[in-house]
Write a structure and sequence with these properties.
19 strands, about 20% strand
């Protein structure tokens, strides 16, 4: 078949761009995916007990972008879902991000009321303050409080998740889960928060139903090199792999999962996600029925443990936000620039950037509108 575009990777970036090109430009698109499913790391499926689980860890959609929300809503209905997380600290479970409710649970009333007053006076009610900022506060009492939160919420979890201390990473990492000076227990405060009613995989299937789109699963791009001639490419995999690691290997963090099924109980834990920053080797446990709202017997909980990424052994999940690694990425970005107009590099792995789902959808829509579509405009 004639192919105008070759899309490598069937995750958010690849599927959004494939759908836009097929529908808006009426061009033929071939998607190549090395795994046996679409959806990338947002893929979900039913386990042996008929419980819908996210195979690669919990994916909770949230955004303030009406444009992104409206676009995805053409492919799915939504189940509203407000994510709440608890962390085990000194034997008690407290809300994360650490907030004024967490403060009340962990400390005596006199101290918690005093610290609440100090935090509100200094930073304002409703503000979100990175823990590393609090640790540098001029007031000793706030610094002492921040050091406690750092030791009990951030240090252990970050060390397990990234294999590094918080100070070794870009400040954006700890900034993603700040201390929230509020009694709002929700993990996110975005305007739109939900999960696809019939799952992410079904949403991706709807995106790829266009007759101009063909899909090849279980296929490595190297297996079909040159087959599609002059087709333009959209590449969403690891950028260092595309260039055969000529400048060295970019590090990523990966994950291991241990599913547990409890057939004799309807619920396992208080919230969908419970973090373990200080105890055990794993980082968190997720109970998926609490996310999807399924009404089926039993419940499935998946234990998640972070680990190093090794090509050919596991999947890359998180680009590591560290200055020296970004400098290495820039060498590959220069290589990519030389292919501008022929190959478009987009997504977490191709841009070595820690995107949220809504951010990568927004990025894909932007690339289509500003870079792809203009190629064919009069």
């Amino acid at each position: 078949m004639k192919v105008d575009w070759l899309v490598i990777g069937a995750g958010f970036s690849g599927c959004v761009l494939a759908e836009r090109i097929a529908k808006e430009l009426d061009q033929k698109v071939m998607i190549i995916e090395k795994r046996d499913h679409i959806g990338g790391n947002a893929y979900d499926c039913y386990d042996a007990n008929d419980i819908l689980v996210h195979k690669y860890g919990p994916h909770l959609f949230h955004t303030n972008s009406k444009k992104v929300w409206d676009y995805l809503s053409t492919f799915t209905e939504w189940t509203p879902y407000q994510h709440r997380v608890l962390a085990v600290v000194e034997g008690r479970k407290v809300p994360v991000p650490f907030n004024l409710n967490s403060l009340e649970i962990l400390f005596p009333k006199t101290y918690s009321e005093k610290m609440e007053r100090l935090l509100i006076e200094k930073y304002g009610l409703g503000s979100k303050v990175p823990i590393l900022t609090l640790k540098k506060d001029q007031q000793e009492e706030i610094r002492n409080f921040a050091n406690y939160v750092y030791q009990n919420i951030f240090l252990g979890y970050t060390s397990k998740q990234w294999g590094m201390k918080p100070e070794e990473l870009d400040p954006s990492v700890t900034g993603r889960v700040p201390v929230y000076i509020s009694k709002d227990d929700r993990y996110f405060q975005d305007k739109y928060q939900a999960v696809p009613k019939h799952g992410y995989t079904e949403m991706f299937r709807n995106m790829l139903k266009h007759p101009n789109i063909k899909l090849l699963l279980n296929t490595d791009i190297k297996e079909i090199e040159g087959v599609f001639g002059d087709a333009k490419k959209i590449y969403t995999g690891p950028i260092d792999s595309y260039f055969n690691y000529k400048h060295g290997t970019l590090p990523y963090r990966s994950l291991k999962f241990n599913p547990l099924y409890y057939g004799d109980r309807e619920t396992f834990q208080e919230t969908a996600q419970v973090n373990y920053p200080n105890d055990f080797d794993f980082t968190r446990m997720t109970e998926y029925k609490k996310i999807t709202g399924q009404n089926v017997p039993g419940t499935t909980v998946i234990i998640e443990q972070a680990c190093p990424y090794h090509p050919e052994m596991n999947e890359p999940y998180y680009p590591i936000p560290k200055k020296e690694y970004h400098q290495l990425y820039r060498k590959y970005a220069e290589e990519a620039k030389a292919l501008q107009g022929k190959v478009f590099f987009i997504g977490r792995l191709a841009e070595y950037k820690y995107y949220n789902m809504d951010q990568v959808v927004a990025r894909a829509l932007h690339v289509f509108e500003k870079e792809v579509q203009p190629i064919y405009s009069d």
